[in-house]
Amino acid sequence: MTRHHDLKDVANESDWFATITIPTPSNLDDARARFELEWRNARRQLSDSWVDDELEQLDELVGGVRHGDSASLVIVHARLGSTLVEELDEPVAATSVHEGPLPRLATVIEARQRVIAHVVVEADRVGADLTAFDGGNVLAIESVDGATVHIHRGHPGGWSQHRFQQRAENTWEDNARQVADAVATLARKVDAQLIAVAGDIRAQVFILESLPADIADITVRIDAGSPAGIADEVVRLLSTIVAERVTTAADLVRAGLNNDIASIDTNTIVAALRRGRVDTLLVHDDATSGHAADPNRLDGARIVDRAIVAALATDAEILVVPRLAMMHGPLAATLRW
Questions:
Q1: Percent helix, percent strand, percent coil in the chain, to nearest 5
Q2: Residue 65's closest CA among 88, 91, 45, 48?
Q3: Are strands 219-221 and 117-123 parallel, antiparallel or unpaired?
């Protein structure tokens, strides 16, 4: 469970914030120039609540952002405080600028809940290449090189055929055990939630048979052979994990409604957040502007933002969800008591 301590710190730093989201496609020849143009356009939309020195510091910070492989960028700036810059793997349609007494953090939280540590194993009968990821970031790369003697099971014929074949089988299994040990060590090191094993089918079988039970439980075989095919299958598996987490949280809310340890009533949840009673907060953010007359506002801020900041303050888990059929408003929650 992600506690978002950095978001909690930023939210406590000021009484006024700017939250800016900028598309940063990297597959364009003029990607950097486009980013700088988008930033200048966003900068012009800021109100006169900001002093010149602060804006100059913000210009310098954004100018130093490395334009990498991210699809978009979220900048959360606390007046007279710090600035959070978050790269997102998912694209945004257009630049948006919001100012108010609270930051808009739902986009960042939703992106983070899609960042799942995982290990991809590309195996053959000699060894394997292991790559650990945290979202789109590579955490570690390792190679396991086993023995090659008797690695190919041949057909020498006569009395020696069985001996040669058995030696080949033994070598494959020994190599697979070395790979399995390396996989288990790396998975525990990065706290992997998924391990995907691709490559030689026989090697896959031996590796899965050699894994410790807790690691085998999060390991799947994939049939794809090309790098693009492996990537597509891993993305699908990770999306399934995210969807299952949302389903599990929604089921807990439904079950808790029967004995008053969950709620889908916005006012009840807001009151529970103030008392620190919320265990898991489910938030649906439709990215509306939150006009002053909007009923989904509280004390000058959107209820969504008010709820997220309150949940951060009380170390509640936060899950950004699509609109769920059971939700009457933007919030649902399970309660601690």
A1: 40, 25, 35
A2: 88
A3: unpaired
Domain that holds residue 211: 117-223
Same domain, 105 and 131: no
pLDDT above 50 for 159: no
Q: Has residue 162 got a pLDDT over 60? A: no
Same domain, 81 and 151: no
The answer, yes or no, to whether residue 154 has pLDDT greater than 60, is no
Has residue 100 been placed in a domain?
yes
Sheet holding 317-320, edge to edge: 262-263, 331-335, 278-283, 317-320
Distance (Å, whole) CA 275 – CA 270: 9
Report the number of distinct structural domains present in the chain.
3
Predicted structure pTM score: 0.86
Tokens of 245: 């987490």
Do both 103 and 122 map to the same domain?
Answer: no
Alpha carbon 12 to chain centroid distance?
24
Q: Which of 66, 82, 113 is the last residue of a domain?
A: 113
